Each structure stands twice: as C-alpha cells, then as structure tokens.
C-alpha cells in the first residue's frame, strides 16, 4: 500500500501558487483576493473558513472573511453578493455552506458571478466542466484530480465507483472521472443512499471515492484487492485526547482497508488539504482572468 500524501502534495503545489501570486502582484500591483462569507456559527464551517483564510495569507493572497448573524435575510445576503460581484478588487467569492434553513442555497449560488465562483458551484461552471471548457472546478474534486496527477496514477479505462452524490463532491467527481481528460476516462458508477447492493457495486471499483459523511462506512469486505481508495470524509468527534478537542475520522475504515488498497488517502492529511489547494488554484485563475 502507498499513501496518497496530502501533506506532501499540497505543500508542493502551494509553493508553486505562491510563486505565481508573487508574479501576479509584481505585474498588477495587487494580490489575488478571496472573500468568504460565513453565516451563523456552525463549528465545522468556522474551522474551514479560518483555514481557507490562513492558507490565503500563506501563499500571498489577500483574504476577507465577512460574517453575518444567522438571522440575516436571503435578500440582504444576495444584495451583498451583488455588491461583491461588481468589485474589481475582489477575484473570488465563496459563501460557506450549509446556510440557515430560511436561505435557499441555490438562489445564493446563482447570485454569485460565475467568474468569481471559485467554489465552482454555479450551474454555468458545472455545465462548462461537463463539456471540458474553461471553468472553476469544485475544490475537493479538483484537489483529488491534482493528487492523482501528482502521483502519475493512470485512470483511463478503470472502473471508478463514487459513493455519495452531493453537489459539492460526489456528483462533480463522477463527471470529472468520466471526462475525456487526464486524469479521467474512467467508467463511472455513481452510488447513493438508494443504491441497491452497495457492497457489490463498491467491490467493482478499481478506484473508490468515499464521500458519504459517515465514519468508517467503507469496510475492507467492500473493497477490491489493489483498489485506489480516496477518502473524502471529515467526521468530527469530540475527543479529550487532542489539542483541538476533536478527532477526525474518514468515511473509510483505514486500518483494515489499507491492507487491501494499492493507494489510499489518510484522514487527516489527505483530501482535506487538497481541497484548500483546489480553492487557491481557482482563486489565482480568477485573478488572472483565465475563466472568462
Ligand atoms: N461546505 C462544505 N464544503 C464546502 C465548500 O467546498 N465550499 C463551501 N462554500 N461550503 C462548503
């Protein structure tokens, strides 16, 4: 078994981004600028946004975190998004999900100018991704593709099984793996909560992407010998043995699945770090105006 090491790959790619950000700043007199809007005080979201902001600073981007009380109305939030859309000094805008129940995430996503949509959630970016056109690719699937590319893992002709069909991970991942691109060219099965005989489906996977959000859901009996296993799960549990007060678990039973896998991502230290890289790369592209 070999580890798909998010620490190593993310550090290397972040060095490249840092150099490009410095070149951008030298040329334009300003840094790439990411704005993240956070509504309410969901513990997970707070951690993710803080990490995104910290990583922006690390690679030489400007970053702004706009925070709203959970009582903000949908209209107020969308008015702010429209203001940011017009601001030439802001390159990328993300609205951290989940949002409070009274705010429709689809309306919010569509309010963001697709040229600033560095999350890649806007339907224009989704459609362009499917067609292999210039677009922002959602950060987690993008990070996973960069990781496969870094290790030179050939995916063409392989059977990929994606578990979970979320808009953020599973659904775009299935499109990317099926695309005529490298990595890509897989035969893809997208499974979800209504899939019958899930174990048999997952057992067919030369590549398995686990994006369910349930601790240790993928067990060794579900995985083919020699499979490439990508664990997207970040399941937080309260723990007294860690400094943060939380311990993270993946969607994959790493201890046992790693004995069968040819390659596997750890949690933490795997996909989570690559998600940040995907977001930073998108923000740099937004600043450079590559996505028109
Ligand atoms: N919530 C969980 N993942 C994400 C993400 O990648 N972007 C945003 N905006 N919210 C999320």
From TrEMBL:
What reaction(s) does this enzyme catalyze? (6R)-5,10-methenyltetrahydrofolate + H2O = (6R)-10-formyltetrahydrofolate + H(+); (6R)-5,10-methylene-5,6,7,8-tetrahydrofolate + NADP(+) = (6R)-5,10-methenyltetrahydrofolate + NADPH
Q: Which Pfam families match?
A: THF_DHG_CYH (PF00763), THF_DHG_CYH_C (PF02882)
Q: For the Tetrahydrofolate dehydrogenase/cyclohydrolase NAD(P)-binding domain, which residue ranges apply?
A: 138-288
Q: Write down the Gene3D superfamilies for this protein, in alphabetical order.
A: Leucine Dehydrogenase, chain A, domain 1, NAD(P)-binding Rossmann-like Domain
Q: Which UniProt keywords are listed?
A: Amino-acid biosynthesis, Histidine biosynthesis, Hydrolase, Methionine biosynthesis, Multifunctional enzyme, NADP, One-carbon metabolism, Oxidoreductase, Purine biosynthesis
Q: Which amino acids does the record list as binding NADP(+)?
A: 164-166, 234
Q: What is its EC number?
A: 1.5.1.5, 3.5.4.9
Locate the Tetrahydrofolate dehydrogenase/cyclohydrolase catalytic domain: which residues?
4-119
Q: Which InterPro entries match?
A: Aminoacid_DH-like_N_sf, NAD(P)-bd_dom_sf, THF_DH/CycHdrlase, THF_DH/CycHdrlase_cat_dom, THF_DH/CycHdrlase_CS, THF_DH/CycHdrlase_NAD-bd_dom
Q: In which pathway does it act?
A: One-carbon metabolism; tetrahydrofolate interconversion
What quaternary arrangement does the UniProt entry report? Homodimer.
Q: To which protein family does this belong? A: Belongs to the tetrahydrofolate dehydrogenase/cyclohydrolase family.
Function noted in UniProt: Catalyzes the oxidation of 5,10-methylenetetrahydrofolate to 5,10-methenyltetrahydrofolate and then the hydrolysis of 5,10-methenyltetrahydrofolate to 10-formyltetrahydrofolate.
What's the protein here called?
Bifunctional protein FolD
Taxonomic lineage is: Bacteria, Pseudomonadati, Bacteroidota, Sphingobacteriia, Sphingobacteriales
């Amino acid at each position: 078994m070999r580890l798909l090491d998010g620490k190593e790959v993310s550090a290397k790619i972040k060095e490249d981004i840092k150099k490009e950000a410095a070149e951008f700043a030298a040329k334009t007199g300003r840094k790439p600028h990411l704005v993240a809007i956070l509504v309410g005080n969901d513990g997970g979201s707070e951690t993710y946004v803080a990490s995104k902001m910290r990583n922006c600073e690390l690679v030489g981007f400007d970053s702004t975190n706009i925070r709203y009380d959970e009582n903000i109305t949908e209209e107020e939030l969308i008015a702010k998004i429209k203001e940011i859309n017009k601001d030439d000094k802001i390159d990328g805008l993300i609205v951290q999900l989940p949002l409070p129940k009274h705010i429709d995430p689809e309306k919010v996503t569509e309010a963001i100018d697709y040229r600033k949509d560095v999350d890649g959630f806007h339907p224009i970016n989704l459609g362009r991704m499917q067609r292999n056109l210039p677009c922002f690719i959602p950060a987690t699937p993008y990070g996973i593709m960069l990781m496969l590319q870094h290790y030179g893992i050939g995916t063409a002709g392989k059977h990929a099984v994606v578990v979970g069909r979320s808009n953020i991970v599973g659904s775009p991942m299935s499109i990317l793996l099926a695309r005529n691109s490298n990595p890509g060219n897989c035969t893809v099965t997208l499974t979800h909560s209504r899939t019958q005989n899930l174990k048999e489906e997952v057992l067919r996977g030369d590549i398995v992407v686990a994006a369910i959000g349930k601790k240790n859901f993928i067990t060794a009996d579900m995985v083919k010998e020699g499979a490439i296993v990508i664990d997207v799960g970040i399941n937080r549990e309260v723990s007294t043995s860690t400094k943060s007060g939380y311990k993270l678990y993946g969607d994959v039973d790493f201890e046992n699945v790693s004995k069968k896998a040819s390659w596997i991502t750890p949690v933490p230290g795997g996909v989570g770090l690559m998600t940040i890289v995907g977001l930073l790369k998108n923000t740099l592209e937004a600043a450079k105006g590559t996505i028109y």
